[in-house]
Structure formats: structure tokens, C-alpha cells
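User: Reviewer 2 asked us to show a designed sequence for the structure in our supplementary figure. I'm pasting the C-alpha cells here. Could you produce the per-position amino acids so we can include them in the response letter?
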């Protein structure tokens, strides 16, 4: 193309071929871009282990405010939700991938089966593909919603016997080094948007007039500032980074 006359037939043929090849390549990159990124992460960590945390987080937005709950392990407010759990039926596949439990938290009944694990870098892509299939693991967002909002009495069980939600997106945080884990870390989160019924919406609005340290209604600005208040030295509220993912 560079050597041909722009007004000549050779240029037209060459440019047509170039466009013909480029469009499928661009389309493939757009469709499979995330997997290409995971493949790159796998190469970067081939001989090491990657800490992976796969979770679901709720976007509960009412009148331009977001409902957050107090963290169980950390003194911060965060979205309703938590890590998915693996089913016993997936133990064989996880063994094939040489998946190990997370070693940062002491195993207990609550954390049993959590998809907060350590994966060999060379198996990272295979693990992600298994996770995206949705088999052998928890695949809905009811458990944490019930445990954090209904079982605690924050929302009435009668009105919230079930919930509907849309899956907004699956968010992959860029691979990063975690000083806490002393390893590379990949965070995956399904963002679920609550679709409340009129009755449920009324109960959610009622929470705004019932201050409680177990939850917080935060604005978008508060969330992006991680709870910080401009011009104030005293910052009593901490909001988790994950809250911004739900905006």
C-alpha cells in the first residue's frame, strides 16, 4: 500500500485486503479481549501462584444513593454480597487445576468452599474458563443477600422472600501485587443490580429514616472518595474499593 498509487487499482486491492483482514482481527480482539488479558496474566505468573477472589456484589440504588453494609472482617462499608462458593462436585476439577485454599484467613464453617483461592499461574486461564461455565459452583446471588440483609433483620423476611436482579457485568480487576497476600492477585466480581418490587422499594426507602451502624446510604461522590469528606481532618467512615465497582 505504501508503494502504490493511492488513485490506482493496486492500492484499492491492497487496502481492501487489509481491511478484510483487519476487521475479523479487531472483532476477535473485542470479543475475546478479556481472555487475551487473562492469558497474558497467566504467562506473567507461570511459575507462581495467583490469589483469586471471585464474588458477586449488589448495586442497590434508591434515589441516587447506594446501600452498603458494614464489613464482617474489616471496619468499612461495602456492597452487599460476597465470594461465590464451590460445590463438592467440582473437587475433581479443582484438584486437576491444583487449586489451593486461601491461606490468609483461618478456615471455618463460614468460609468453607469459598472461591477465594490460590491458582498456579499456568492454570489461570483454565480456572477462569471453568468459573465462567458456572458449573460446580454457586451461581446466584441469594445467599449473601439473605445473610446480610434479611437474616440480620435489616429488611423484613416477609417482603424479601425472593429478589430479582439483573447481571450488569462481570468485572475483572487488573492483575496486581497484594502485599497482604505476598503474591499477584486477580479479583473477579459479578455486579448484580437489585430490581425491587414496589413493596420492597418502600422498605428500602424506610431504611433511610432509620439510621443504623450496620448499614450506610452513600452517594456516588462518597463512594468515589472512599468515604472521605472534603475539608475534614476526621474521617470516621471508610468505604471499600469494591463499592466503586458497582457504580
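Assistant: Here is a per-position design you can include in the supplement:
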Amino acid at each position: 500500500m505504501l508503494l502504490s498509487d493511492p488513485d490506482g487499482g493496486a492500492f484499492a486491492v491492497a487496502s481492501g485486503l487489509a481491511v478484510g483482514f483487519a476487521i475479523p482481527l479487531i472483532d476477535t480482539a473485542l470479543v475475546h479481549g478479556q481472555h487475551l488479558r487473562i492469558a497474558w496474566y497467566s504467562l506473567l505468573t507461570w511459575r507462581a501462584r495467583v490469589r483469586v477472589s471471585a464474588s458477586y456484589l449488589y448495586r442497590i440504588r434508591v434515589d441516587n444513593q447506594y446501600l452498603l453494609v458494614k464489613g464482617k472482617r474489616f471496619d468499612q462499608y461495602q456492597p452487599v454480597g460476597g465470594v461465590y462458593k464451590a460445590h463438592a462436585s467440582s473437587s475433581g476439577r479443582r484438584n486437576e487445576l491444583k487449586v489451593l485454599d486461601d491461606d490468609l484467613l483461618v478456615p471455618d464453617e463460614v468460609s468453607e468452599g469459598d472461591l477465594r483461592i490460590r491458582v498456579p499461574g499456568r492454570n489461570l486461564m483454565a480456572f477462569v474458563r471453568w468459573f465462567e461455565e458456572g458449573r460446580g459452583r454457586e451461581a446466584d446471588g441469594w445467599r449473601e443477600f439473605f445473610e446480610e440483609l434479611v437474616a440480620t433483620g435489616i429488611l423484613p423476611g416477609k417482603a424479601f422472600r425472593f429478589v430479582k436482579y439483573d447481571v450488569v457485568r462481570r468485572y475483572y480487576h487488573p492483575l496486581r501485587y497484594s502485599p497482604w497476600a505476598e503474591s499477584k492477585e486477580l479479583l473477579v466480581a459479578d455486579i448484580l443490580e437489585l430490581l425491587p418490587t414496589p413493596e420492597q422499594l418502600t422498605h428500602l426507602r424506610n431504611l433511610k429514616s432509620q439510621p443504623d451502624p450496620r448499614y450506610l446510604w452513600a452517594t456516588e461522590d462518597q463512594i468515589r472518595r472512599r468515604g472521605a469528606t472534603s475539608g475534614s481532618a476526621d474521617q470516621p467512615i471508610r468505604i471499600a474499593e469494591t463499592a466503586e465497582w458497582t457504580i
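For the response letter, you might also mention the following. Residues 85 and 115 are 5 Å apart (CA to CA). The chain has two domains: 1-44, 48-245.
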